[in-house]
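This entry is passed on directly below:
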Amino acid sequence: MSAIFTAYPLVRRALFAMEPEAAHEATMSALQKAYDCRITRALSHQLPLAPTVLMGLSLKNPVGLAAGLDKDGAHIDALGNLGFGFIEVGTVTPRPQPGNPKPRMFRLPESEALINRLGFNNHGLTQFLRNVARSEYRRNGGILGLNIGKNADTPIENAADDYLIGLDGVYPHADYITINISSPNTKSLRDLQSSEALDALLGALNARRQVLAEQHKKAVPLTVKIAPDVDSDQLQAIAQALVKHAIDGVIATNTTISRQGVEGQPHAQEAGGLSGTPVHEKSLLVIRQLRALLGATFPIIGVGGVVNGQQAAEKIQAGANAVQIYTGLIYRGPGLIPEAVKAIAALQNH
C-alpha cells in the first residue's frame, strides 16, 4: 500500500493543528502538487476492483467522492487518482459568490464530525466549466458528477432560473448532474424540498433536459440530493416527485441541522450542517424509507457518516447502490477508500 495511504495519521496531526478551512486548502494544494509531480499517478491502480453499474454508468467501484470537497472542480484529476469509483464536484452557482463569513467550518473530533456553514462559496459557473474542461479524468474513463445550486441572493421563487442556467452549462461536461436542494447554509433552499416547490422545479428541469438531450445527442442522468431532516410525509412527496419527473437517482443525504449525538461538545452549537459519524444512522433511515417507497431498482447513492468500511457496507445493506464519502476522508485519509471498497465487495461476494 502506498505511503500516501499509510502516512495520513501522521499528516493529520499537523492538519488538525490548523484552522479547518486553511487545512482543507493546504491538503488540496499538496494533493495537486503530488499529482502534478507524478508522485501519486499509480495510486488508483493499487485499489481493489468492485465493478458496479449506476444509472447506466459503469463504475470501477461503488465508492465515490461527495460534492463539497472540490467546489470549483479545480482538483478533479488529483482526487480521481485516489481510486474513487466516481467523483462529484460543486456545488457551483451561476455567479461567483464568497459564501458566509469566516470562520465557517468546525471540527468535532470526539464524534469524527464537522460543522460547516460555507454557503456555496465558489468562483461561479464560467470558471467551474473551464476547470472541468481542462481535467483529464473523464477522458481517462472516470465518472464525473457535477452538482448545481442557486446563488444566495436569488429569491427562492426564482430558484428554478439558477438551476436551469446551471443545467445548461454543465450538461455537455457531466456523466451525471446533481440538483442540490438540501444545503442548510443557503437561506430557504430546503423549502425547495416541499411538495409543490419540488414538483415545479423538477418539472422545469425535466423539460429542459429533454431539449438538451436532443441538442447534445446524449442523455445525462439527473439526481436530487436531499436532507436527512425530512419526515415521512415529506419523503413520500419527494419519492413521488422523483418518479413523476423521471429523475434518474437520489443522493441521501446532505448534512443535518440536528445536533443529536454531539450535545455539549466544543463547537456543537455553531450554526451550519453537521456531517460525519452522527449523520450515519439518520442517513440509513432515509435510505431504507426511500428504498421502500421507490422499489428495488431506483438508484440510490448513500452518503453521510461513512468513516469506516463497515459503515459503507451498512449503506449498501440499507438499500444504497453506491456510497459517497467526504468527512470520513478528512478523519481517515485516502486509506478509507480501499477499506470501503473491500467491505462492499465482501458483501457482494456473499
User: Anything to note?
Assistant: The longest strand covers residues 86-92.
